[in-house]
């Protein structure tokens, strides 16, 4: 299967063990290209750089097998540079983002640079998978082997072009894999206010998460010792509300447009 081409990226930067170990595993069955941020970019979501130039640097020697490049942008920038500049004529068969050092569950996929890099690839009709690992317990090397086997199995079965998955691996003993939906959690005390030695206020964004108790979610699966595999989509239209809004337009808004 060496004819396959896999593009790797992440939001932890090129020094992250998850990226290096995953590249080593995937290189056994596919050609590996890596375009990754040159520094930590966690929480960058799907932001792209518009008002400053991007720079792309070939990393030679590379820390693992493959063609490695660093970019001074976000994970979404990295995907764009790879698809539209480095590999425009021979696009990858699969884009893999991760392995992230830490889980990306529930609503956090909207903030995650790891998950949103996969969403950026999906936007351009390239199959994409985001991989995340719970910290503590399981070694990243073990997770890299597991994720590589999962990805290879997907490719061998024939990967659909619109594939978009978020995979989370628990830290403890792995009991199996569950197909899940996104969980829901709410943060309390999101803004923490502090004062520096000069008396000037500063703030940390964080808070304590509270998960909703909902069976079948990614959070429940990981908490129970299972790897969660969650299919995602990027379409944002609220189709279910269209009939109600149509009635509102007819009854209330139409006179305003006359």
Order of helices and strands: EHEEEHEHEHEEEEEEHEH
- CATH-assigned homologous superfamily: Survival protein SurE-like phosphatase/nucleotidase
The fraction of residues in strands falls at: 25-35%
Helix coverage percent of residues? 25-40%
CATH architecture level-2 label = 3-Layer(aba) Sandwich
Structural class: alpha/beta
Distance between the termini: 63 Å
Low-confidence runs of at least 5 consecutive residues: none
Mean pLDDT: 92
**Adjacency order of strands in the biggest sheet:** 3-4-2-1-5-6-7-13-8
The name of the CATH topology is Stationary-phase Survival Protein Sure Homolog, Chain: A
What coarse outline follows from CA principal-axis ratios?
globular
Descriptive notes:
With 258 residues, the protein is an alpha/beta fold. It has a single domain, classed as Stationary-phase Survival Protein Sure Homolog, Chain: A, CATH 3.40.1210. It has helices at residues 17-26, 75-86, 113-123, 140-157, 218-223, 242-253; strands at 5-9, 31-37, 56-58, 67-71, 94-101, 128-133, 164-169, 176-179, 185-188, 191-195, 201-205, 208-211, 226-231. Strands 3-4-2-1-5-6-7-13-8 form a nine-stranded mixed beta sheet, with helices on both faces. Strands 9-12 form a two-stranded antiparallel ribbon. Helix 1 packs across helix 4 and helix 2 runs parallel beside helix 3 (113-123).
């Amino acid at each position: 299967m060496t004819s396959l081409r896999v593009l790797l990226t992440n939001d932890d930067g090129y020094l992250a063990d998850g990226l290096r170990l995953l590249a080593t595993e995937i290189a056994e069955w596919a050609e590996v290209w890596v375009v990754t941020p040159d520094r930590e970019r966690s929480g960058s979501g799907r932001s792209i750089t518009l008002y400053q130039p991007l720079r792309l640097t070939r990393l030679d020697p590379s820390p693992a097998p493959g063609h490695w490049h660093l970019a001074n942008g976000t994970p979404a920038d990295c995907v764009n540079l790879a698809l539209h500049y480095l590999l425009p004529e021979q696009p990858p068969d699969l884009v893999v983002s991760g392995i992230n050092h830490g889980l990306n569950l529930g609503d956090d996929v909207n903030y995650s640079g790891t998950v949103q890099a996969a969403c950026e690839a999906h936007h351009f009709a390239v199959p994409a998978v985001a991989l995340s690992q719970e910290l503590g317990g399981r070694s990243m090397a073990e997770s890299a082997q597991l994720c590589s086997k999962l990805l290879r199995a997907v490719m061998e079965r024939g990967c659909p072009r619109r594939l978009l998955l978020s995979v989370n691996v628990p830290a403890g003993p792995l009991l199996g894999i569950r197909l899940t939906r996104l969980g829901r959690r709410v943060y309390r005390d999101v803004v923490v206010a502090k004062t520096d030695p000069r008396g000037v206020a500063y703030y940390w964004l964080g808070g304590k998460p509270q998960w909703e108790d909902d069976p079948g979610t990614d959070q429940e699966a990981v908490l129970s010792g299972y790897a969660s595999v969650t299919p995602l989509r990027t379409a944002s239209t609220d189709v279910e509300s269209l009939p109600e809004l149509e009635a509102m337009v007819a009854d209330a808004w139409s006179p305003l447009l006359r």
